[in-house]
Write a structure and sequence with these properties.
This protein is mainly alpha-helical. 50% of the residues lie in helices and 6% in strands. The longest helix is centred in the first third of the chain and has 20 residues.
Length: 568
């Protein structure tokens, strides 16, 4: 993206003074010509980029830790397989003192309690995203960021699934296979109870075929349409309508039920189409012979290995990964030099996901300056990122239930910015990851910018979460992360703070720095930068926090509302 053009376009959305950028008209978007050649340089900026793109926000402490690991060590830790987290809990029915006591294995009660369970699931997920204790394996790991990726890829909606236990099991499946085997993942999501409910796989029979899942499996989940062809008219590059019908027939007969309070899929042979299924030339006229409940696995294998283009399915998912972790546009250079080799790696590894991710995250292309700070943070990145970068402070946490209140409030804030966990807007997921030409710009409009600024305004002064208060402490942030010398001089302090929190590839103009100094930090009370120095020295000598705290709240309220902070 042209970053300056983007930032200029956002000026009217912000309710803070924002001086003219005095930028020339935007040039055509420049894209990198770097490749998957292993990256050599490794420093703070590279560590920040890796953390912010593959997790949710980077505190100074976390950046220091990740930088110390070196590139190989950082990527290896990022892609470490983790044990399953403890399940979510609901204070109205679970003993929160026993971390294994969870509604996920209890009987359905009623619709109201089901809603409470769903909300605890959302809050619990936010809690997992916030983890950054580097003494734990979860403190720096891709698991939750890529689980969100899969939630946008293998979409279900809780409002349609309408059963919290099903939604938890679906979410756990995304996490289980997050960096595992893609073939196995496709197989298991196909007969996942929540997916069977969501896309009507449970009503797909030999007597009354339902094409919903068979169509989305091909179009959205595995290989994609490709461009429409002219011969025959209306056909697709990678499959045709006959393939949709044949896939649907291979998937007939699957049902779901709850056994011992666990959602379970099962196969009913009488409802299965017992005839052979022959596919088009798009899949080399492959025929699936009658084999009952095993046919869905052969169908998945055929899609992954029997296409006219052997790498078609691998390329499809690699493009989705690229748009999520790197950049939303894929030009011909990226297609040939990034997507194709990544797809080959995925294919050669029998569809193990980790080798492909490792190749990407260790490449020069991933760290290219043209791929840094060029995408708009999604609402979860924005909300959770603030919490992690400033090490969120929660006051009023007296019980485990209070912790859930805190997490749920962050979920609500992201929901107001149009990303509601467990409820994408439709089977295609959020428009920002698939709707061209705008892609990530869909996160930005007059309503969402109002919500974003409202969130940062409140988090600086105190955000109420049903009796729990969420805040960031600017004073603690400064003292923890910067030296006394760096803090005492106002201009140096501003350079250090903005240098860490804002894009290094988009340096602030002197005019912006002056605005941060005189309008934000000094609050228009003085034109002398030493006004800050005097108050800071008074604070360090006498503990006089009042004036320093007011100045820092003003400064960070302004800083977090700057358009630059919305870029990742």
């Amino acid at each position: 993206m042209d970053r300056r053009s983007f930032l200029t376009s956002l000026e009217n959305y912000f309710l803070v003074p924002y001086r003219n950028l005095s930028a020339p008209p935007p040039d055509p978007i420049q894209r990198p010509v770097s490749t998957l050649t292993p990256q050599i340089n490794w420093g703070e900026e590279e560590a920040k980029h890796l953390i912010r793109r593959t997790t949710f926000g980077a505190s100074k402490k976390l950046v220091t830790h990740v930088q110390s690991l070196g590139l190989n060590g950082a990527v290896n830790k990022l892609l470490t397989n983790l044990a399953d987290p403890l399940p979510p809990q609901n204070e109205l029915e679970d003993n929160l003192g026993n971390s294994n006591d969870s509604w996920t294995t209890k009987a359905y009660i009623d619709g109201e309690m089901n809603g409470k369970r769903l909300n605890s699931l959302r809050a619990w997920w936010i809690g997992l995203m916030l983890e950054q204790d580097t003494t734990k394996a979860e403190g720096f790991n891709i698991r939750e960021k890529i689980t969100l990726f899969w939630h946008n890829h293998f979409v279900t909606e809780s409002g349609i699934v309408d059963e919290a236990r099903y939604c938890f099991q679906y979410n756990a499946l995304l996490r289980k296979h997050a960096i595992g085997n893609y073939r196995t993942f496709l197989e298991e999501i196909t007969v996942n109870p929540a997916m069977l409910k969501y896309l009507n796989g449970d009503s797909n029979t030999a007597f009354n075929p339902n094409e919903n899942y068979g169509r989305e499996l091909l179009e959205l989940f595995s290989i994609g349409k490709g461009p429409q062809t002219t011969n025959p008219i209306g056909d697709y590059t990678f499959y045709n309508e006959n393939d949709v019908k044949a896939s649907t027939r291979a998937l007939t007969g699957w049902r779901h039920q709850v056994v011992n309070n666990i959602p379970t899929a099962y196969f009913t042979a009488p409802y299965h189409d017992q005839k052979s299924k022959t596919f088009s030339a798009r899949f080399k006229n492959h025929t699936i012979q009658p084999q009952g409940e095993l046919e869905y696995k052969e169908l998945i294998n055929m899609i992954l290995t029997q296409s006219e283009d052997a790498l078609a399915a691998a390329k499809f998912i690699c493009r989705r990964v690229y748009r999520y972790f790197v950049y939303y546009q894929i030009n011909q250079f990226a297609e040939d030099n990034i997507i194709a080799p990544l797809a080959q790696t995925l294919f050669n590894s029998n569809y193990e996901f980790k080798p492909m991710l490792q190749q990407l995250f260790m490449s020069q292309h991933f760290y290219d300056v043209l791929n840094r700070s060029c995408v708009i943070k999604n609402p979860i990145d924005y909300v959770v990122g603030v919490g992690k970068e400033f090490e969120l402070i929660e006051t009023g946490i007296d019980t485990p239930a209070d912790r859930y209140k805190s997490w749920f409030k962050l979920y609500e804030e992201a929901m107001e910015m149009q990303l509601s966990l467990m409820d994408p807007p439709g089977v295609s997921g959020w428009a920002a990851y698939g709707q061209q030409p705008a892609y990530h710009e869909y996160w930005i409009n007059s309503d969402t910018m109002y919500q974003r600024k409202g969130f940062t305004d409140h988090i600086v002064s105190g955000l109420d979460a049903d009796g729990v208060t969420l805040t960031i402490n600017p004073l603690k942030f400064l003292r923890t992360n910067f030296s006394a010398t760096e803090i005492t001089d106002a201009r140096v302090m501003i350079d250090k703070v903005t240098g860490f929190l804002l894009p290094a590839v988009l340096p602030l103009t002197q005019e912006q720095k002056d605005t941060l100094l005189f309008d934000a930090l000094l609050m228009g009370l003085s034109t002398d930068p030493n006004y800050w120095t005097t108050n800071w020295i008074d604070y360090t000598a006498n503990g006089a926090t009042t004036e320093v705290t007011k100045m820092l709240k003003s400064f960070f309220t302004y800083l977090l509302a700057m358009p630059e902070y919305h870029l990742s």
